Amino acid sequence: MAERKSGHSGAVETILPFERHLLELEDKIRSSDSEEERVKLERELQKERESVYPNLSAWQRVQLARHAMRPRMLDYTSRIFDDVFELHGDRALGDDAAMVTGIARFQGRTVMIVGQQKGVSTEEKVSRNFGMAHPEGYRKARRLFKMAERLRLPVISFVDTPAAHPGIEAEQHGQGPAIAQSILQCLNTRTPTMAAVLGEGGSGGALAIAVCDYVAMFEYAIYVICPPERCAEILWRDVEKKDMAASALRVTAGDLQDLGVIDAVMPEPGGGAHRNPDAAAQVLATEIDRFLLGCQQGRWNIERRRRKFQRMGVWYEELANVREAVD
Amino acid sequence: MTTFFSRSPFAGFMGGKKRMPDGVWIKCDGCNQAIYRNELDENRQVCPMCGHHYRISARRRIEIVVDEGSFAETHTDIRSADPLQFKVGKETYAQRIERAREASGIDEALLTGFAAIEGQRAVIGAMDAQFIMASMGSAVGERFCRAAADAIADRLCFVCFAASGGARMQEGILALMQMAKTVDSIRQMNEAGVPFISVLTDATTGGVYASFASLGDVTLAEPGANIGFAGKRLIEGALKVKIPEGFQTSEYQYKNGFIDRIVDRAELRPTLAKLIQYLTPAT
């Protein structure tokens, strides 16, 4: 992974190996004076994209999902919503900056928003703990869901976290129970809820705010039971088998749709959301619009949500009882 | 999720350091004293000298806790499938399951059934660490939910002995979703006014701790059990700090307000019988 300081936003510009050639082409297009050459290069770029992106390995897709330049929750909310009034604190212990909650306005309507913010600059990443929430964060999310129900407002949840924070204080304050209660609250909220998986859906820390009526996931986002590196370490006893683990775990949006875990895949602009955050935000806004339309049409209801999660999983069941009945 | 274990994940956990080694005399993990194996067996696998609670199988757990002959096992036909066609080296997940069956003598990491404890009827669940570290896959999730439905239908307490390394990795995201699924069963019990008693045993971690296991109306724990969300090694690795003594033990969780009572194995029967008697809804 090459890094060079970027002039804007304080993010460290990161280029993944398979992106390098595409970026070079883009640079060439920008600096070219000849219209004819530009057209030719554009065509070459398009072809290159079409050959690279559909053939990315599972691990390369993990890298894209974790891309340092990838738009974060607040990059989307600032583009999508007319206004966001942030709400702070869990009303018990503190305010967790990794979990953002608030009231937002979308095309004249009020919605409640919740989600993890990984951070962009190094300073922000540290202050937001890289999007890894503590129990205070999950309790803040729970507060938000409860408030949404009280005030009969829909909830839009933005999922982007490597994991719930693994730490001494987090354990002391009940990380496990906080996640469990957050899931329970998701299942108890009587207003429509939507989750958008933006980048990394990291295990229980992601699930805690993603048990929603409508779950949409960006094309190059991942949603995992545990980080592929950790899975490789445990099952293969070799961190370097992470590519194998990533592919075995089936972490991509397409995989998750096939497994019935998510409801929609949101296509990303060429080269990924970070190549064109405005276009990615537009895609997400369209999805939010679709969700809100579903709210008006009474498409979402809590029993349907509960049934959806009750049915998840694949197991084998011998039909012993049925056979007995037939005999 | 999946805070699997410190040390080598399978060898340490499954092999026998904490479980019973062969031989007539063994050295206690708790006090280093030599103890006579038979004496340990008779004492419910608790060291007679120091009270160290060894891990026990789900079958032994049920034998210790419920009235003799009262256990009627349910949902034994629910078994793990291999939805991801998961393979580690040459071993498929289906083969891994087979190996776990042979090692543990049971079909899945969670056994469920109807039973009586000192005459008090209840639905019982017991997890078994010998079965892929009692990790939760779709079959465990489904068994849990069916047992909860049984408790609701018969208006009985559901007592579940948790022990788990977390969600089962070989089932990927579907295993993670079992957290939502089992929590929904808790919700159903909550709405039906059917009590859920969660007994945390060594070790209850990861996705199981972060779902049904920590949502008991009453939460009990055995002494000295490891209970927590993230594995100690993971925390040490992430934070580069030394974990304090006694971190993530039952006593630690009790002190922090997450457990109602720590109960010695010998006291489980009368304690549970009392709770079941007090809490079972009137029909």
Please characterize this protein's 3D structure:
The complex is a heterodimer of chains A (327) and B (283). In chain A, α3 (58-65) crosses α11. Chain A has helices at 20-31, 35-52, 58-65, 73-80, 122-127, 135-150, 168-172, 175-188, 203-207, 228-236, 242-249, 253-258, 277-296, 302-310, 320-326; strands spanning 2-5, 12-15, 83-87, 99-106, 109-116, 155-161, 193-202, 214-218, 222-224, 264-266, 315-317. Chain A has 327 residues and is an alpha/beta fold. In chain A, strands 3, 4, 5, 6, 7, 8, 9 and 10 form an eight-stranded mixed beta sheet that branches. Chain A has 15 helices and eleven strands. Chain A folds into two domains: 2-55, no CATH class; 63-310, 2-enoyl-CoA Hydratase, Chain A, domain 1 (Alpha-Beta Complex), CATH 3.90.226.10. The longest helix of chain B has 21 residues, at 172-192. In chain B, α7 (206-209) links the parallel β10 and β11. In chain B, strands 3, 7, 8, 9, 10, 11, 12 and 13 form an eight-stranded mixed beta sheet that branches. Chain B has a two-stranded antiparallel sheet with strand order 1-2. Chain B has ten helices and 13 strands. Chain B has helices at 11-15, 37-42, 58-65, 93-104, 138-154, 172-192, 206-209, 232-239, 250-255, 268-279, and strands at residues 25-27, 34-36, 72-74, 78-80, 87-88, 91-92, 110-117, 120-127, 157-164, 196-205, 218-221, 227-228, 261-262. Chain B has two domains: 1-54, no CATH class; 55-279, Alpha-Beta Complex (2-enoyl-CoA Hydratase, Chain A, domain 1), CATH 3.90.226.10. Chain B has 283 residues and is an alpha/beta fold. Chain B starts with 10 loop residues before the first helix and ends with a helix. The radius of gyration of chain B is 18 Å and the shape is globular. In chain B, α5 (138-154) packs parallel to α6. The chains are: A alpha/beta (327), B alpha/beta (283). At the A-B interface, α7, α8, α9, α10 and α14 of A face β4, β5, α5, α6 and α7 of B. β11 (315-317) of chain A pairs antiparallel with β4 (78-80) of chain B.
